[in-house]
Amino acid sequence: MSYAALRRPLRPLARIIRARDKGENPDEIARENLRLRHEEMRNKARARAESRLLVLGVMFFCAFAVIGGRMGVLANTEAEEPRATATGNPIIGQRADITDRNGRILATNFETHALYAQPREMIDPVYAAAELVRIFPELNEARLVRDFTGDRRFLWIRRQISPEQMQAVHDIGDPGLLFGPREMRLYPNGPIAAHILGGAGYGREGVDSAEVIGTAGVERYFDARLRDPANEGVPLALSIDLTLQSTMEEVLQGGMTLLNARGAAAVLMDLHTGEIMAMASLPDFDPNNRPQVLTSGDQSDSPLFNRALQGVYELGSVFKIFTVAQSIELGLINAATLIDTRGPLVWGRFRIRDFHDYGAQLSATDVIVKSSNIGTARIAMEIGADRQRGFLGTLGLLEPVPLEMVEASTGAPLLPTNWSEISTMTISYGHGMSASPLHLAQAYASLLNGGTRIVPTLLRQDGPQNGERVVSEEVSAAARDMLRAVVTRGTASFAEVPGYAVGGKTGTADKPRPQGGYYDDKVIATFAGVFPANDPRYVIVVTLDEPVETSGSEPRRTAGWTAVPVAAEMIRRTAPLMGLRPQVEVATLEGVTLTANDDD
């Protein structure tokens, strides 16, 4: 209260005099001034008290807000396995999708959870271990109990679990069992295109996220591209067509089963762009549950082995068209040149024979149509080892196919250490060197597309490759005519598909024994073809490992009875899917007599 207020008189003289003049009671003035003085003092005291309470309330509010915020942060923090601090990029969980050429999903991401434990927070570890084994039978109960009751602070139980499993674990009700968000790689089509996609797994892991990395196939080859945040999740578009891939695998599986083959492979490729439209290898696997790599034995027995890319085989007579085409390109022969086919052809201790006796001579075209080893070997002798090797090199048959898969480098051809004259002769008909079915598709595409080098690719292209020239357009056309004749009147007659002019060549090669020599009853049967032969668009290669056709009185193993019918069925089913309209041959009126109608 101010000094002026304390000095305010209770009985001011002027007011007292006026009150007496009016006949009023002067004591009322003193009481009123006293009341006003007390009210003023009370108001000022209340204001001071309210100010102090407000300041105290604000201080308490700020203190409780800080404590509550800190408690919330601690409550939302999940424990993590202790690890040394390291510099580098944080864990990148997002991974771009992979699609086929039409945008259909081949590989994508799926939100799931990982299961881990904090043993120190567990209430009943023995009960929890028993319940976990009931949910996940593959777990070891004794080991879980030992881990839960030991000194461990953190324990991974499962890297990924299904929503149903998550609910079952949640129902256990133990606070020491916790879940961490996960992004897993999902392949919605199962084993379709499994060898192309390869698969993915986890790299660096934390309880809040995990690094998804490619383990094989295009997933690993394009791993950096798929994980790069700068791409903003733009899908990786492959050249394959999901429908064609599914159809090819279905037909190949059926053929492999009917022919009791040990394995099979097939390639369908655009011979102008180099795009692989479909590529299959059997047996296959489901990349959602990728099997383990074999630690012993022959790796080709594993379903992970890609027979189309990694499998290198002596492919047999499918190589003969290369020899004849090169000889025509060099001007040594033409399609009608007669070739000496008398046999056997003797070179030192080696004897080269034909499957049948074709007489003394065959034209160069019929050497291909009849598939004469002797005729092809004699043509190769005129070419010579150096020129043969150089030509096969231009076709890409002497080095691994540079495909966008990490396995490509493992499919190197097997070549003779000494490319002698006998090597030249045997290689001319597909023995003495080994290559993969994809090598063969690449070489056929380069030879038959007009004569320019083609490199296979799994990425969608905007136009033809226009590579270096390997043969002239005339030689390419002559080779297509010869392969067409093989189907119309030669060893690949079962490849005839009505409406589509198919050209191709069969190859039946004895399998080599590990200890040397060749098996008498085991072969690699191959068909390599082009369609339509008059306007080439696609190359197809089908290879069967140890096929046997048993519908007749004796088992038949040659490609004409095994690989060719499988390839024909593939063409019959896939050609319409690729927009190829069947060409109907116009009937002629030769031998038809026209008569007039009397009613006209």
Number of strands: 16
Fourth-level CATH superfamily of the largest domain: DD-peptidase/beta-lactamase superfamily
CATH topology of the largest domain: Beta-lactamase
Distance between the termini: 137 Å
> How many structural units, i.e. domains?
3
Mean pLDDT: 88
CATH architecture of the largest domain: 3-Layer(aba) Sandwich
Written description of the protein model:
The structure is a single chain. By secondary structure, the protein is α+β, with helices and mostly antiparallel strands. The protein has three domains: 3-61; 98-237, Penicillin-binding protein 2a (Domain 2) (Alpha-Beta Complex), CATH 3.90.1310; 244-577, DD-peptidase/beta-lactamase superfamily (Beta-lactamase, 3-Layer(aba) Sandwich), CATH 3.40.710.10. The chain is built from 18 helices and 16 strands. The protein has helices at residues 3-6, 13-21, 26-76, 125-135, 141-148, 163-172, 194-197, 217-221, 223-227, 242-258, 320-329, 364-370, 373-383, 385-394, 421-428, 437-448, 473-489, 563-577; strands spanning 98-99, 105-117, 155-161, 177-186, 199-205, 210-216, 236-237, 263-270, 276-282, 338-340, 345-347, 350-352, 361-363, 503-512, 518-531, 538-545. The strands form five sheets. Strands 1, 2, 3, 4 and 7 form a five-stranded mixed β-sheet that branches. A hairpin with a 5-residue loop joins strand 1 and strand 2 (105-117). The model is unreliable at 1-5, 81-89 and 596-600 (pLDDT under 50).
